[in-house]
């Protein structure tokens, strides 16, 4: 997709925090819904070829989202997100942890903070993810995504080869 | 008895090694400064310490932590020990960050498409 929308990704190792900022060519209400409604979330949350399957979502303080990242082979990696703070269309926070299929979290997890703002029809979302240990976060990413991403890259390579032959 | 002690010492070293968090290692400003220094050239602990206002002991401690994380390597040249950077290990750290960045990039590109569809449906 070609656009000049901002995408900023940085890691502050001393603060153990990952910062992600992204602009979207859509109004605040729509973007807020995309982050807070399960029907919409499941359509974009998982990077392909993974799929996001939300089993429970109760978007209120004290509520939770319990979902799985499903690999192309059908393997499920469950994640539990507990909402700790919500200011409608401005900010929401949750505590994120990997879990087993019975919602037992694998602690410790990470703290996510999302901030939304709109200017001239463009909505900016800033996400800060604080993790007690970046190294553990690294391991979890490896566990959850290694195969999926290699697959995507392989697919891309294949596609490019096919395209260049034409 | 001596072998036994060596075994214990080695086991403790391994334990410490496991406890070493690579990100913790580079979170410290002095250690980051040491990394920057020796990225340019291999240096002796004395030469490194000359760049800091702390004691030599403190610099040795930082060097030990960096060595345990395999971020720096030691090389004996004559009577001196030289420290230099393990470039490959540093690259490893960036690799997973790149992976994480990709995940978010892909995710957001998917959201872009979805938002554009939703906007059309609304009209």
Name the strands of the widest sheet of chain B in spatial order: 1-2
Question: Structural class per helix/strand content of chain B?
Answer: mainly alpha
The biggest sheet of chain A amounts to: 8 strands, antiparallel
> Proportion of β residues of chain B?
5-15%
Question: What's the pLDDT, averaged over the residues of chain A?
Answer: 83
CATH superfamily of chain A: START domain
- Whole-number average pLDDT of chain B? 79
- Whole-Å distance between the termini of chain A? 22 Å
Class by SSE composition of chain A: alpha+beta
For CATH, the homologous superfamily of the largest domain in chain B is named as: Winged helix-like DNA-binding domain superfamily/Winged helix DNA-binding domain
So how many helices of chain B?
A: 6
Number of strands of chain B: 2
Number of strands of chain A: 8
Please trace the helix and strand order of chain A, writing H or E for each element: EEHHEEEEEEH
- Stretches of chain B where pLDDT is under 50 for at least 5 consecutive residues are 14-19
Question: Tally the helices of chain A: what do you get?
Answer: 3
Low-pLDDT segments, ≥5 res of chain A: 146-157
What's the CATH architecture of chain A?
2-Layer Sandwich
Helix content of chain B: over 70%
């Amino acid at each position: 997709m070609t656009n000049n929308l901002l995408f900023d990704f940085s890691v502050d190792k001393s603060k153990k925090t990952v910062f992600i900022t992204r602009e979207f060519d859509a109004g605040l209400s729509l973007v807020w819904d995309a982050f807070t409604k399960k029907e919409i979330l499941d359509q974009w949350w998982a990077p392909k070829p993974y799929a996001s399957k939300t089993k429970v979502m109760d978007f209120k303080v004290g509520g939770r989202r319990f979902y799985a990242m499903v690999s192309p082979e059908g393997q499920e990696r469950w994640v539990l997100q507990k909402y700790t703070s919500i200011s409608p269309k401005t900010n929401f926070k949750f505590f994120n942890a990997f879990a087993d299929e019975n919602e037992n979290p694998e602690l410790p997890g990470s703290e996510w903070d999302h901030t939304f703002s709109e200017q001239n029809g463009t909505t900016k979302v800033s996400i800060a993810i604080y993790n007690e240990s970046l190294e553990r976060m690294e391991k979890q990413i490896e566990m959850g995504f290694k195969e999926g991403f290699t697959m995507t890259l392989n697919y891309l390579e294949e596609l490019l080869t096919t395209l260049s032959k034409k | 008895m001596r072998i036994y002690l060596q075994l214990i010492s080695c086991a403790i070293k391994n334990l410490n090694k496991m406890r070493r968090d690579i990100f913790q290692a580079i979170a410290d400003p002095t250690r980051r400064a040491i990394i920057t220094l020796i990225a340019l050239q291999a240096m002796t602990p004395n030469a490194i310490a000359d760049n800091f206002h702390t004691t030599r002991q403190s610099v040795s401690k930082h060097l030990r932590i960096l060595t345990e994380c395999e971020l720096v390597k030691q090389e004996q040249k004559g009577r001196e020990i030289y420290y230099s950077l393990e470039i490959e290990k540093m690259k490893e750290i960036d690799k997973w960050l790149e992976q994480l960045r990709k995940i978010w990039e892909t995710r957001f590109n998917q959201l872009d498409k979805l938002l554009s569809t939703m906007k059309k449906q609304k009209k």
